[in-house]
Write a structure and sequence with these properties.
This protein has 165 residues and is an alpha/beta fold. The chain has 8 helices and 7 strands, in the order βαααβαβαβαβββαα. It has a single domain, classed as Aconitase, domain 4 (Alpha-Beta Barrel). Helix 7 packs across helix 8.
């Protein structure tokens, strides 16, 4: 799973309530996408393009553990989310909805918004095509990578040998 896209950089300790604002009534995934991270960068929901990559610092997706947050990010067309660290709940929820996630120590200082990135989720590598530099992260265990390849937990279970016994 290799993705290439433009970087949108965010800070540290981004709670799920900032990813998906609680004041918005969700009627559809398309409506969700119009408000993702808008309080932190109003340009993001207006200008994010399919295939772009979110990069954040420590503790991305902390706080309430709202399972809707990774679904909303996925609805924007974002290809992957990279961070120095994720809350455990967000990390799990992201994989379950098929949102590629990669923990990469040092990634926050490694990029700027607008940089072009290439991310290899399975190998845990990030190349900043704008600077020519690379970093190695912590790829998910094979089980979670299989879940991502299937498109999330439900598609994974539908095709799993576990259900076909």
């Amino acid at each position: 799973m290799i993705f290439e896209g433009n970087c949108w950089k965010f800070g540290h300790n981004i709670p799920t309530d900032e990813i998906t604002p609680t004041h918005v009534v969700w009627k559809s995934f398309a409506e969700m996408a119009k408000h993702v991270l808008e309080s932190l960068n109003p340009d993001f929901p207006r200008n994010v393009q399919k295939g772009d990559i979110i990069v954040a610092g420590r503790n991305f997706g902390c706080s309430s553990g709202r399972a809707i947050a990774p679904k909303a990010i996925k609805a924007t067309g974002v290809a992957a989310v990279l961070a120095e660290g994720f809350s455990r709940t967000f990390y799990r929820n992201g994989h379950e909805v098929g949102l590629p996630i990669l923990e990469v120590p040092g990634v926050h200082e490694f990029v700027e918004t607008g940089d072009r990135l290439r991310v290899d989720i399975a190998n845990g590598t990030v190349t900043n095509l704008s600077s020519g530099k690379s970093l190695k992260g912590s790829p998910a265990p094979e089980f979670l990578l299989e879940m991502l390849r299937a498109g999330g937990l439900i598609p994974f279970l539908k095709t799993s040998q576990f259900l076909n016994r």
